[in-house]
């Protein structure tokens, strides 16, 4: 994969930073204002973003599409086997809960996100995410905004937004009225409020209703789903995802979640797919040995006692948002539930961000994939790369947003 245009574009933007700092500073202000107007940035809950885009070449995008289709087919092969034989599911409090949920819905639609690290020309998968895998709007709003600020780039580059692909999957399933389940308090995270309303507007002509947690008791489920005098044929669990410390809340809503899964409505991001959110990615290569080429080496704690851990990353199971990850640990406690993953020395990318960060940054590549899978026929009915989330960190090799990272706008070569 040769980045035919990436170097030239980055070079041009970098020269603007070095030779026209005052002019570029004004572009940063214009960029921030355009993001605010788009709803992709709020001053109350600022999310750091770089103005210098990353470019995915046409051939690279095609290769990522093929790679993600193979990964998605393999993931749902694993899920089919798990549901046929629940005793094979690795035990954990969350997995044990998921195994008790109804499997009435036999066609699953939703949005996955595969997180990769890139070293040289190779992508290595480091995490799978299946239920509400991050914001659907904010990560791609920066890309469209860069194209607005630098309109000449639009001649050769474009961006894609996950929510548009999600809408296609919902329309294919016949969804006309969508219920979006959210949390009670909006004040703590204004960007999430903006995100939800952007989703609501973007999925038109599908009608979407945002329902906060305090209103869940007003949702009636008896075959069909009723709320506020309307019947809904689709549900999107924006809040009840079991991630980011919300595991206990999901467990407390077992009956509610079960009733939704037994309903006639399409559950977009079905909770059953959380069985595929496993830190030890060797479950994929056991299902399909050809997947091994996309995985870093992974070892159990017990295999590495007394070894040098400088080229390894400790990852604890049942943790999210960059927590439970230690790069080059000094020691390993074998009583903890986790794995050791080969350290990937990632490529760097130049950033100039809204918060004033500047320099070459570590980055990852989150690839959103919308899918539709038939459990009975074991067929992947639809799978497409729906968008990219490139996160960066100047100070750390951990790039998660909750750990102080930011977003690099990601554009694709035409």
Query: How much is the average pLDDT?
Result: 84
Amount of helix: 25-40%
- The general outline is globular
Q: Please give the largest β-sheet.
A: 7 strands, antiparallel
Beta-strand content: 25-35%
- Counted by DSSP, the helix tally is 10
Structural class of the secondary elements? alpha+beta
Distance between the termini: 15 Å
Quick one: how many beta strands? 21
Rg of Cα set: 21 Å
Total individual domains: 2
Give unreliable regions as ranges: 16-21
Describe this structure in words.
The protein has 414 residues and is α+β, with helices and mostly antiparallel strands. It folds into two domains: 6-296 and 344-413, no CATH class; 297-343, no CATH class. Helices cover 29% and strands 27% of the residues. The protein contains ten helices and 21 strands. The protein has helices spanning 6-19, 21-38, 58-84, 93-98, 138-149, 162-172, 190-202, 247-252, 254-262, 282-287, and strands spanning 54-56, 107-119, 122-129, 157-158, 177-181, 207-211, 220-222, 224-227, 230-232, 234-236, 266-267, 298-300, 312-316, 325-327, 338-342, 348-352, 358-363, 365-374, 379-393, 406-408, 410-413. The strands form five sheets. Strands 2, 3, 16, 17, 18, 19 and 20 form a seven-stranded antiparallel beta sheet that branches. A four-stranded parallel beta sheet has the order 6-5-10-11, with helices on one face. A hairpin with a 4-residue loop joins strand 18 and strand 19. Helix 1 crosses helix 2 (21-38) and helix 2 packs across helix 5 (138-149). The longest helix is centred in the first third of the chain and has 27 residues, at 58-84. It is globular and about 55 Å long. Residues 16-21 have low confidence and may be disordered.
């Amino acid at each position: 994969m040769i980045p035919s245009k990436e170097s030239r574009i980055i070079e041009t933007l970098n020269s603007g930073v070095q030779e026209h700092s005052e002019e570029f500073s004004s572009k940063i202000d214009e960029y921030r204002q355009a993001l605010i107007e788009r709803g992709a940035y709020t001053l109350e809950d600022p999310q750091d973003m770089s103005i210098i885009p990353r470019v995915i070449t046409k051939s690279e995008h095609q290769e990522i599409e093929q790679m993600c289709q193979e990964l998605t087919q393999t993931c749902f092969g694993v899920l089919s086997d798990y549901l046929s034989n629940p005793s094979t599911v690795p035990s954990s409090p969350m997995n044990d809960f998921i195994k008790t949920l109804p499997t009435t819905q036999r066609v699953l639609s939703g949005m996955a996100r595969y997180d990769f690290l890139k070293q040289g020309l190779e992508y290595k998968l480091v995490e799978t995410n299946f239920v509400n895998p991050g914001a659907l709007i904010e990560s791609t709003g920066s890309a469209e905004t860069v194209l607005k600020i630098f309109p000449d780039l639009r001649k050769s580059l474009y961006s894609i937004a996950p929510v548009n692909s999600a809408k296609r999957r919902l329309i294919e399933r016949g969804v006309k009225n969508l219920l979006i389940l959210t949390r009670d308090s909006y004040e703590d995270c204004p960007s999430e409020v903006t995100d939800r309303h952007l989703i609501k507007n973007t999925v038109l002509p599908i009608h979407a209703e945002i329902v906060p947690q305090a209103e869940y008791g007003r949702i009636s489920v008896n075959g069909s789903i009723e709320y506020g005098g309307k019947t809904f044929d689709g549900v999107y669990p924006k809040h009840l995802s079991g991630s980011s410390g919300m595991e206990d809340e999901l467990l407390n809503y077992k009956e509610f979640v079960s009733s939704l899964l037994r309903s006639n409505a399409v559950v977009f991001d079905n909770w059953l797919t959380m069985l595929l959110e496993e830190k030890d990615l060797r479950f994929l290569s056991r299902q399909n040995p050809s997947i091994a080429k996309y995985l870093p080496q992974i070892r159990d704690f017990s295999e590495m006692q007394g070894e040098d851990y400088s080229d390894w990353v400790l990852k604890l199971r049942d943790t999210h948002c960059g927590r439970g990850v230690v790069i080059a640990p000094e020691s390993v406690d074998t009583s903890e539930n986790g794995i050791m993953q080969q350290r990937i020395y990632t490529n760097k990318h130049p950033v100039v961000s809204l918060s004033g960060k500047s320099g070459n940054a570590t980055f990852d590549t989150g690839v959103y994939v919308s899918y539709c899978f038939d459990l009975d026929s074991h067929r992947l009915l639809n799978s497409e790369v729906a968008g990219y989330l490139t996160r960066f960190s100047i100070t750390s090799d951990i790039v998660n947003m909750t750990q102080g990272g930011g977003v690099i706008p990601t554009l694709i070569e035409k």
